[in-house]
Amino acid sequence: MKKNILLSEPRKLGVRLTGCxxxxxxxGVFVFFVVCLFSFSSVAADDFEQxxxxxxxxxxxxxxxxxKNLGSQGNAAALPALxxxxxxxxxxxxxxxxxxxxxxxxxxxxxxxxxxxDLKSLSLRKPRINNSVRRVLSATIGKLQLQSSxxxxxxxxxxxxxxxxxxxxxxxVEKALAEETNDEIRGVFNLVLAKEGLNSEDKQKRLxxxxxxxxxxxxxxxxxxxxxxxxxxxxxxxxxxxxxRDAAEKALSSIERRQFFINQIAxxxxxxxxxxxxxxxxxxxxxxxxxMGVINMAHGExxxxxxxxxxVIQNLFKEYLPSFFDWYLIAAIxxxxxxxxxxxxxxxxxIIRHLYGRPLETLLATWGISLILxxxxxxxxxxxNVEVANxxxxxxxxxxxxxxxLPFNRIxxxxxxxxxxxxxxxxxxxxxxGLQVRAVTQNRGMASCVGISTHxxxxxxxxxGSGVAGLGGVALSQIGNVGPELGQxxxxxxxxxxxxxxxxxxxxxxxxxxxxxxxxxxxEPVAGAVLGKIFVLILVIIVIQKxxxxxxxxxxxxxxx
Length: 561
Hints:
Number of strands: 6
Oligomer: single chain
Order of helices and strands: HHHEEEEHHHHHHHHHHEEHHHHHHHH
Shape: globular
Strand order of the largest sheet: 1-2-3-4
Helix content: 55-70%
Strand content: under 5%
Number of helices: 21
Largest sheet: 4 strands, antiparallel
């Protein structure tokens, strides 16, 4: 028994020794693999750096080879340098370092280390490239963008391929499509392949391409589809296959229906945007004209003063507070209100208070004031329009869906208008000042008898209306240039809004401004800008004939007088 045990021990030991050898063997293989991996990574990194430096080589053939190598490596880190080379923003220092310039060319960074460099201390030259290099460069950039980990870059690359021939990148697009998980990008990739598939000799492939275009295509495909339906001089279709022509016609109809829907959505938004601007311009007029019965032809100049106040505040921030420049618009809102309201109070105290109950004299006097204000602004700021920059948070827009981008500045205007309307309504309906304004509006004599200072109420009301118009000028400065005649563009439309909505009613002003804004935008594509305004004017006249008190009526001073 012991003998057997003794005989078996070496076997067990041998087994253990064999296991140790195997473990050691696997461990050695693992270590070797790790060392090779790191060595390979190091070599790859060295190759990347060398290829990147070769972009600044004096030999065009070496530049072309470096571009191809960078494309083969598939490292998206090469994109900034390649795009800079394509955009003529790549420079080479004396020691061979690559410098990427910004868009203005006054700053630069090292292409490899990403560190900022002092351009003044360097002697730089441009890389020597030609059209042959540019073709390779464009293909490589497209390839790297399609392989990028950033979905925004991949989407931009795919959309770029839709606008130009992607024949050389079809295989790459197919590979990218197979690996892509983003539905939006996949849709664009499919359209790219469908576009190239139209040129195929395979009828079934062409039909499949037309089916994809029918479902997801946009206006970019209209010319291609129309080409399939064109006829030659003899009246024969250029596309001989009737099945292909039928599929192309269906795809074209589908795209046109989809584009029509998109256009209507865009018109609705821009109509609301225009309506909000009209509302800001008309809201102050609804107070001065609707509640007070004063025909103020200088009301448009309150808009202009508010816009120029914004321009002045912008320049002050640019000069003295450049690091807080984006906050200038917030500061301009109360200042524009105070300046415009203050000028309105001065107008009321000096001139308008003596002309109550005399509408013709008031009209002529305020018209004269408007001319004086316009000329004063010309003398101070010049006759040329001035530009008011958007803050960074109002630049760009939101893509609601394909083909419709909602600008941030117009969205902000709509929100701002809603806020101002709520504030003015609360002031007139819920405050003691609003109660006194309504009392003076409805019965001036009785209000005076109960101790209300009607003259002060007139001053405050006129100042409020002018201040609100100044806020409208702040909004207008964000969607266009500012000029001395800015207010003249909106005065007629503002009066139409107030009269249509019903004098003295904020709800009527809101309804009138929104309705006229949306109607204008829907009529412009059909009838043109001029005829569209004529149709709107005719409609307003018809409404006033049928309902002279406007959409919302209010008994006020004008009615009583």
